[in-house]
């Protein structure tokens, strides 16, 4: 079953359409990335999924149930880590988690044990009684996560949880996301840090002007812009090179020579680098360097939207 099913979702603020006819299915066990520049509509979409904003048009289902008709069920099954910190500075770490888990419906001894478990999960087990106003930025972010996961939601939504924090907390958070996913939660992760999305997401939707302009695995997105990879091999001399033999290798499309550099354009899907190198070595060539450039998500984003993610 799909954990989240969005059908033709639209949000209009007056005449302005912030989310435009967006449809999407997220399956159990995915870490799904929403990638988009500032103002693309990511937070607006998330605020509708979490019922913080009313829907203008379209439907959202969590675990097969419409979130408007089954609001209590939806609330119990979603955990949101918002972009802006949502913790109370004049409450202790434990009181914060207890408060939010209570809002999600936990009570009594279960609430207590889950709050303790969530604090331990984010590495704040020694800080139960500390006031969050004394925490570093990274610790506050981690507490923010504990508040969202104590009720063990099926779907956890993280809206840019690593903005403005130190590298150590960043890597802690990314590892926690992977761990939460291994423990059975489906994750939606929004970011404009391309490397993070590449590192942790199983599938990605690129959002621009409120629309999904492409979605798929990293490999599928990269294949949209190019099915070619470029290999540059620097050799001592190209004198002995048999260009025809290189062209005969499966996947190789073109071979060009520029001084002592052989430039090969090949099908990105075919792993033929070993064969190319073997062929060069068999003809007695001395290889000095090899570079294979594959497109990254930054290139995909630029090509599809005409803009950089961090404009
Ligand atoms: N309450 C509102 N009233 C009018 N316009 C709004 C409102 N909320 C958001 N918008 C507009 O909707 C668009 C999408 O905003 P949104 O915050 O969803 O983008 P985002 O992709 O989350 O960007 P960011 O990465 O900066 O958070 C923006 O142009 C924003 O100005």
Automatic annotation (TrEMBL):
Q: Per the UniProt record, which residue ranges are transmembrane? A: none
Keyword rRNA processing set for record: no
The UniProt keyword set, sorted, is: ATP-binding, Nucleotide-binding, Transport
PROSITE patterns xrefs: ABC_TRANSPORTER_1, ABC_TRANSPORTER_2
Q: GO molecular function: any one?
A: ATP binding
InterPro entries named among the record's database cross-references: AAA+_ATPase, ABC_transporter-like_ATP-bd, ABC_transporter-like_CS, DrrA1/2-like_C, P-loop_NTPase
Q: Name one Pfam family in it.
A: DrrA1-3_C
Annotated ranges, domain ABC transporter: 4-234
- Which PANTHER family does the UniProt entry name for this protein? LINEARMYCIN RESISTANCE ATP-BINDING PROTEIN LNRL
Please report the name of this protein according to its UniProt entry: ATP-binding cassette domain-containing protein
This chain's source organism reads Paenibacillus mendelii
Q: Please spell out the taxonomic lineage of the organism that makes this protein.
A: Bacteria, Bacillati, Bacillota, Bacilli, Bacillales
């Amino acid at each position: 079953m799909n954990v989240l099913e969005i059908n033709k979702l639209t949000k209009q603020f007056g005449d302005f359409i912030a989310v435009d006819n967006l449809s999407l299915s997220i399956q159990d066990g995915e870490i799904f990335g929403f990638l988009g520049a500032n103002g693309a509509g990511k937070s607006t979409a998330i605020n509708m999924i979490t019922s913080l904003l009313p829907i203008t048009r379209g439907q959202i289902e969590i675990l097969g149930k419409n979130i408007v008709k089954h609001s209590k069920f939806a609330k119990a099954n979603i955990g949101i880590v918002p972009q802006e910190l949502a913790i109370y500075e004049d409450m202790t770490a434990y009181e914060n988690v207890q408060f939010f888990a209570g809002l999600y419906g936990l009570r009594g001894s279960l609430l207590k044990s889950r709050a303790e478990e969530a604090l331990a999960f984010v590495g704040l087990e020694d800080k139960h009684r500390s006031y969050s106003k004394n925490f570093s930025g990274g610790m506050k972010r981690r507490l923010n996560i504990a508040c969202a996961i104590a009720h063990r939601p099926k779907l956890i939504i993280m809206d840019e949880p690593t903005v403005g924090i130190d590298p150590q907390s960043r890597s802690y958070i990314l590892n926690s996301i992977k761990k939460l996913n291994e423990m059975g939660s489906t994750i939606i992760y929004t970011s404009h840090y391309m490397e993070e999305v590449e590192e942790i997401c199983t599938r990605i939707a690129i959002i621009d002007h409120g629309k999904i302009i492409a979605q798929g695995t990293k490999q599928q997105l990269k294949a949209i812009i190019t099915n070619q990879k470029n290999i540059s091999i620097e050799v001592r001399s190209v004198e002995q090179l048999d260009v025809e033999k290189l062209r005969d290798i499966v996947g190789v499309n073109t071979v060009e020579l520029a001084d002592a550099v052989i430039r090969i354009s090949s099908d990105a899907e075919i792993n033929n680098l070993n064969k190319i190198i073997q062929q060069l070595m068999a003809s007695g060539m001395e290889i000095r360097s090899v570079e294979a450039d594959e497109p990254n998500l930054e290139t995909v984003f630029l090509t599809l939207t005409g803009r950089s993610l961090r404009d």
